[in-house]
Amino acid sequence: MKKDKNLQDTNDEVNVAEQNEAAANTDTKTADKSEAADGNSAVEELKAKLEEKNRQCEEFTNMVQRTAAEFDNYKKRTVKEKEALSLDAAIDTINAFLPVVDNLERALKAAEGMEGNPLKDGVEMVMRQLKDCLDKLGVEPIQAVNNSFDPELHNAVMHVTDDESGDNLIIEEFQKGYTMKGKVVRHSMVKVAN
Fold it and tell me: How many CB atoms lie within 10 A of CB 91?
């Protein structure tokens, strides 16, 4: 009987251990389910945060690209403005010298019959030197006589009717015009036929 009692006690202990283990398994399963639910919501929360950060990163990347493009455009615009200012300053300077060129041309025209005159030779040398300087700066005379009138290049101060000349043909130039790098420094003063 003692053996039966020991066996009974052992069975009772096994039953209690099994019940405790079953209860523990149930608690573990419940905890696992709640942890899984908590884990899923944490994963969803992390995914949402990641998407937000990706969107912000994309916005910042776009902002940096726009800023870089704007800066590049600013640099190009600044270079063009500097070139335009430089050209305008050069044109103003050239305009100050053109009356000197005109007077030297008049002096040479007046001295046409004086061959071997040292004064004429000196004026010719000064005129050649001045024309070389203008050529180096890119200043070119505007072709006028026997060309069609162009209001962008010529300033018509006289108009005559001439049956021998074509329409809008320049027949005389009163003052030579000049261009510099494609921009008019001074318009040619001309007489236009028809």
Answer: 20
Q: Is residue 115 part of a domain?
A: no
What's the average model confidence in pLDDT over 93-109?
93
pLDDT band at residue 16, thresholds of 50, 70 and 90?
low
The residue-averaged pLDDT of 16-40 equals 63
Question: Average model confidence (pLDDT) for the chain?
Answer: 86
Asked if residue 28 belongs to a domain, the reply is no
Indicate whether 192 pLDDT > 90.
yes
The mean pLDDT of 94-113, rounded to a whole number, is: 92
CA 77 to chain centre: 5
Using DSSP's 3-state secondary structure scheme, residue 119 falls into helix
Give the closest residue to 104 by CA, choosing from 124, 133, 132, 121. 124
How many domains would you assign to the chain? Answer: 1
Strand 188-193, strand 183-186: pairing: unpaired
Q: Select from 168, 158, 161, 165 the least CA-distant residue to 191.
A: 158
Q: What angle do CA 55, 61, 64 make, to 5 degrees?
A: 145
For residue 138, which of 89, 182, 86, 81 has the smallest C-alpha distance?
182
**Dihedral angle sign, alpha carbons of residues 154, 159, 162, 166:** positive
Is the overall model pTM greater than 0.70, yes or no?
A: no
**Which residue range(s) make up the domain with 164?**
140-194
- Relative to beta strand 154-160, strand 188-193 is parallel
